[in-house]
Design a protein that fits this description.
Mean pLDDT: 93
Helix content: 40-55%
Shape: elongated
Number of strands: 8
Number of helices: 10
Strand content: 15-25%
Strand order of the largest sheet: 3-2-1-4-5-6-7-8
Structural class: alpha/beta
Distance between the termini: 39 Å
Low-confidence stretches: none
Order of helices and strands: EHEEEHEHEEHEHHHHHH
Largest sheet: 8 strands, mixed
């Protein structure tokens, strides 16, 4: 078994697995990937899998170590990977709330860290990932990290790490808000007399189609909204409620994003 890897993936749950699928689809060789996860199963042929870091061969090295375990587990996990720290290795974390300083404390001050916040549409190549780099990283290492994450969707860099909690609140947690909106739309349709299965189909397809239209259009979201809103029509009647200054969607979403941002800051502790 080779001891030099292009990628070491620590944790291969839903997000880690989605990223692995994206990398392999983009041409990363399975033989260049080491997955460390005691519960990993049914991985693509050629990917090396071990249950824990203490089973890494002596002298193992990696270009990128992707840390994809839960934030609550991270403090216990990091010391196990200190042997991989080198100027040629980037530790790329997708853990919400955990700061660059936290990772340097766990891995050592010489560790090169990139924080990333992806979201679950990465599983179908339509994710959104924001990255923030720690000290010591080279431009080529930044490009390499961005290239890896582009395999799962769009990528953006952030200079101010303090804004990562807001990123997490908007895009990291954002898919759940959309899914809940589908649930709410379907339930409202049922209340208006629609059969449950038809109401859910209408809600799912409408949100999926609107998202694809937004993806393909160059128009701002506000313009797309106006394009389907006739003055005095049914859409306008609904938007009068959703856009109300007293408890409308902007107010509710603002409170939701603020709550998620606060929770991200708490996870840093």
């Amino acid at each position: 078994m080779t001891s030099s890897y292009a990628l070491v993936l620590v944790g291969c749950g839903k997000m880690g697995g989605a990223m692995l699928d994206g990398w392999l689809a983009e041409g990363v060789s399975p033989q260049s990937v080491l997955v460390i996860d005691p519960f990993a199963k049914d991985l693509p042929a050629g990917v090396t899998v071990i249950p824990s870091a203490d089973q890494m061969p002596a002298g193992t090295s990696a270009q990128v170590v992707v840390l994809a375990v839960k934030p609550q587990m991270m403090a216990d996990v990091l010391p196990l990977y200190r042997p991989l720290v080198s100027p040629d290795t980037v530790f790329l974390s997708i853990a919400a709330g955990k700061t660059i300083a936290f990772f340097r404390q766990g891995l050592g001050e010489q560790a090169i860290i990139v924080r990333a916040m992806p979201n679950t549409p990465a599983a179908i190549g339509r994710g959104m990932t924001v990255l923030c780099a720690g000290p010591g990283i080279s431009e080529s290492q930044k490009v390499h990290c961005a290239t890896l994450l582009k395999a799962t969707g769009a990528v953006a860099w952030l200079e101010d790490e303090s804004l990562m909690d807001a990123v997490t609140a908007v895009s990291g947690s954002g898919p759940a808000y959309v899914f809940h909106m589908v649930e709410a739309m379907a339930q409202a349709g049922i209340a208006m007399g629609l059969p449950a299965d038809l109401s859910m189909l209408l809600a799912r397809q409408t949100v999926a189609g609107a998202g694809e239209l937004l993806h393909q259009s160059d128009l701002p979201a506000g313009q797309l909204r106006q394009n389907v809103t006739s003055p005095g029509g049914t859409t306008a009647a609904a938007l009068d409620i959703l856009m109300s200054a007293d408890g409308g969607l902007p107010d509710v979403m603002g409170k939701a994003i603020a709550a998620a941002t606060r929770r991200g800051k708490e996870l840093a502790g």
